[in-house]
Amino acid sequence: MTYLLKGGLIVDPLEEKVEQLDLLVAGDRVAAMAPGLQAPEAEVILVDGCYVLPGLIDMHCHLREPGDELKETILTGTRAAARGGFTGVVAMGNTRPPADNRSVIEFIKRQAEAGIVPVYPVGCATKGRRGEELSEIGDLFEAGAVALSDDGSSIASGEVLRHVLEYSRMFDLVVISHCEDQDLSAGGLMHEGFNSTLLGLRGIPAAAEEVHVARDLILSEMTGARLHIAHVSTAGSVRLIREAKQRGVRVTAEATPHHLCLTDEAVRSYDTNTKVNPPLRSGQDVAALREGLRDGTIDAIATDHAPHTREEKEVEFNLAPCGISGLETAVPLVWEHLVEPGILTPVQVAQKMAWNPARIIGLPERRIGVGGAANLTVIDPRLKLPVIVEQFASLGKNTPFAGWELRGWPVMTVISGRIAMQTRATPASSDASIGTLRGVS
Ligand code: DOR
Asked: Is the distance from the beta carbon of residue 152 to the nearest atom of ligand 1 less than 6 Å?
């Protein structure tokens, strides 16, 4: 397949520049890049005014398979990823059974062959995610695990985490840490503060996260292992990570679109779609996360896509599971709430959602260059549309963003030259059906 993307603004995360260039894709590669390119035999796709980013990677999502296929499957989750503009997803291991052994990793990889976006599985750090005994880390690595994590829960024992970090070094695997002191968070339903008092819901203090962030940073420093802090949500965590980076600790960190765009005010609706772990925090926390993103303390934006069924979410607040279905709203949330107000540039979006995730996970470089693999995400900054949950490809319809009018939608997802999603819409058409998946039934 040969096609010519005409008039796009090509974003380079390494050289930190944006240039209007035509881009010729032939097979799975970028064949040429120049202004005013002619290629008579190629299909022409007009993308003028759109940003063309290296293919985005979501370095934190939950695809639920095996075990919870009513919430999501690898097929539906990767379809959601393609609709959301992602060209690769890192799947957490809190499945049933958990991905704590070779056969589950191999199963996920096999199922992913039918998915439309590459899936990079994370192996559990400990057996059964119980935080007691190390998984067979060498086996997980050989089977194709790209990172280690007990995400969904923390590792309570510092001693166990120390050994995970030490073993991870042998394979240069990054350890992704879900930071939560489960004694401090026990029974908590939302952020501890004014709103939890007002609503009469038990709070989770910021310290529940920060105590573990501090501990994990110290253990990373002690062992020299690579640590990545998942879903950072508090100002104190940002400060601790910033200081650790200044000391040279090998730490990276991510924040989610929901923690960057919502505060605990949203919980006042009692909408269970605002129930998430870590919880939505205060305005000061959101401001600190945004500053951390801007100054490089937070390296990545990751969705923590956590689909749940309607039945599970349509219950009393205290009974609902935590999580937000995030793959299909991440890009326009980032564009509308971070790029439009000038907090992030398009170059920084490419860094936080493509370049850095690839670097942290150890995937090939995410950059658009002649001869390189054609992994692309095209974003139309003029396209303004509401979030329509019914159009989600994800089985998880649990989003607090339903009906939000957002600008800056992904309009094309290209994976190794293959167009996995293309929106046939013009900025003027308000009823655009975002994310028509190509080549999938
Ligand atoms: O809200 C969340 N949901 N946070 C997590 O850490 C896990 C996730 C899930 O698996 O549902």
From this structure: yes
